[in-house]
Amino acid sequence: MTRLMLGRTLERICKGVLLLCLLHFLIMMILYFDVYSQRFDLFSRFNNGRNGSRNNGSGTGSGHHYYYYNLSRPNATSATYLAAAEQLVPSLQPENNQTPSPKPLPPCPENPPGLVGRLLIEFSSQMTMERLQKENPNVTEGGRYKPPDCRPRWKVAIIIPFRHRENHLKYWLHYLHPILRRQKIDYGIYIINQVGRQDTLEERKSTDVNCFRTLLFVLPYAGYFGGVSGLSKKQFLKINGFPNEYWGWGGEDDDIYNRHQCVKFLPQNLFPFNKIQNTKNTMKKDGISSLTYKLVQVKKYPMYTNISVEIGKPPPRPIKG
């Protein structure tokens, strides 16, 4: 009797253990298929997202790129996935009408490190405009340049009075453009071309020589103002600009010097320097206020802007008695 009861008890225990094992197996299978289905759904969405982004990118290039994030808590049995990054964090995607603002450029240095200094100037090699364009690819139409890596401190207009010096102009542009670029300035080159064929160099008519040669050069007088000079816009307007009464060669630079210094001096034996002694009296009415010209043409070339003007004829010279 005791053995029979013990056998039934063991049988019941075994059946209970078997039922527990079967229940555990069923629970494990349910969890396994649940996780597998979630993973399969993740991969299918990921592939669809990649294909969608590729299709959008191959068209206009403006398609959305989708990302997938697992937002489930560590202890949860199911995971939540979002199919678009903009649904998760809207700030990740910029608005349609907004573009990122460019970073402001730093100011250009006052003394750029690329300055060369004194140059060797030579005219032995042939110079062409095609060569100038290859040497200065960053110069835009009209002879304009602006440094791309910094904000220029100065904006400069290089104004050149010009007449019948095409070969000289090529060499001048060849040397000047690199110098100005190294200075990190915003500049433009303007050639003021005097049209017309009248000859104003009276020296050619009165002098019968074969060659002009200077073996020893000295300045003709103190305070010589020839060469290269620079005036600010305020200074230029204050002196009423350049004089217009000097036809031919020489005198206008010294007149400008007198306007700037407000002094009188008269170099001797040099025509037309007899006008210089009256600079203080004439500067208010001879200059920008009396300038008359006819604009013939404005044309932009790759290395400069050409401005052709007609300024008329020189007044007749007084007859010497």
TrEMBL record:
Cofactor(s) needed: Mn(2+)
Domain Galactosyltransferase C-terminal residue range list: 217-261
Compartment list: Golgi apparatus membrane
Membrane-spanning residues: 12-33
Membrane topology: Single-pass type II membrane protein
Pathway in which the depicted protein is active: Protein modification; protein glycosylation
InterPro entries associated with the record: Galactosyl_T (IPR003859), Galactosyl_T_C (IPR027791), Galactosyl_T_N (IPR027995), Nucleotide-diphossugar_trans (IPR029044)
Cellular component per GO, a single term: Golgi cisterna membrane
Record-linked PANTHER family: BETA-1,4-GALACTOSYLTRANSFERASE, BETA-1,4-GALACTOSYLTRANSFERASE 2
Stated role: Responsible for the synthesis of complex-type N-linked oligosaccharides in many glycoproteins as well as the carbohydrate moieties of glycolipids.
Name of protein: Beta-1,4-galactosyltransferase
